[in-house]
């Protein structure tokens, strides 16, 4: 059962990038697509966490501060993610998301008194090399451009912030109040994206809803289920198995989809960067 849940988590991880890319293609040329995407995604996620909280919920006032931080970082992540998918390759965008693990590792060295090992240092170096290869390996005027890199970095920083806030909350309260933490985090994030949507350009909102409302809602549900599955697997499988398998497995599925479904072509240097990125994720997650 544990490995079945793990396999579903890998599938859900890979599917999020693919669904986001397809949403962009269905709404090419329309305005306000990113704000609509995030609003619907977070609505789906809130519904899942609300159901989960009905099963187990314990309120803790101090955890609200962590939820607020996570919610802000998650909104930043999803905004950068959908805009990066719109401007660059699906595979490289997914890789950048996974490489944000470096933020948690460095933060741990500085603030959590975690010891740097030779393997973790190698992992960090490989992250840098991977980023250089992926960015500098592009063709002039190709899909992977500086606009893509800017949005990918927003996603990168936001996702690193999510990981740091989430782990800080778990360390502060011995892993308790997880459902309450995630529910209020998603509500805060939904509030942020709702403001962004209502102050933004809503010219094509009805057309987007009619054609593709299901895609972001499904992504939000898959994201929430994957996070809940990770919580379940924490008691069933070693973290040294769970995190690398989900991260690298999701990357592989996304890379296959970018080739087979979206017909994206990466240069040899970028494929090398993808490979080194997978290795670095394994090293940083395990060690």
Automatic annotation (TrEMBL):
The chain crosses the membrane at residues 36-57, 64-85, 91-112, 119-140, 146-165, 177-200, 212-234, 241-262, 268-286. Keywords: Cell membrane, Membrane, Transmembrane, Transmembrane helix. GO terms for molecular function: transmembrane transporter activity. It is a multi-pass membrane protein. It is found in: Cell membrane. It comes from the Bacteria. InterPro entries: EmrE-like, Small_drug/metabolite_transptr. GO terms for cellular component: plasma membrane. Its main location: membrane. This is EamA family transporter. It comes from Candidatus Borkfalkia avistercoris. The lineage of its organism: Bacteria, Bacillati, Bacillota, Clostridia, Christensenellales.
